[in-house]
Design goal:
This protein is mainly alpha-helical. It folds into two domains: 32 residues; 72 residues, Multidrug-efflux Transporter Regulator, Chain: A, Domain 2, CATH 1.10.1660. The chain has a three-stranded antiparallel beta sheet with strand order 1-3-2. The N and C termini lie far apart (55 Å).
């Protein structure tokens, strides 16, 4: 049963002994994770950026993987990226979403050339 989330009403249907029910409840309590630490200043999580800029989360994750966006902190549960950098890419993406990857690659290349 490890790794399976079960609702309270489903536990009753399984016909478990009281000891098995207690073990199951204990396992569920242990699975709760600690709250996330606050994001570093000037950063935003990938999921929050997705909601804020209306860009699919897999798209932003792909930009991170390709190096278009730098990860500021990776907590294991969430990756935090630069908010200004994300806002700039989102603005460029919004101008031409049909050619998103070409637009973003062009902006990222311009940023790299300017930083040299």
């Amino acid at each position: 049963m490890a790794g399976v989330l079960i609702r309270e009403r489903d536990i009753k249907r399984l016909g478990l002994t009281s000891k098995q029910r207690e073990e199951l409840k204990k396992m569920a309590e242990e699975r709760h994770r600690d709250p996330l630490p606050p994001p570093p200043n000037g950063s935003i999580s990938i999921s929050e950026a997705s909601r804020r800029y209306n860009i699919p989360q897999p798209t932003i994750s792909r930009w991170v993987r390709k190096g278009f966006i730098i990860v500021i902190q990776d907590t294991g549960w969430a990756k935090y990226i630069g908010q200004e950098q994300m806002a700039e890419l989102a603005a460029n993406y919004a101008r031409d979403p049909g050619r998103g990857k070409w637009t973003i690659k062009k902006v990222a290349d311009e940023n790299r050339n300017n930083n040299r």
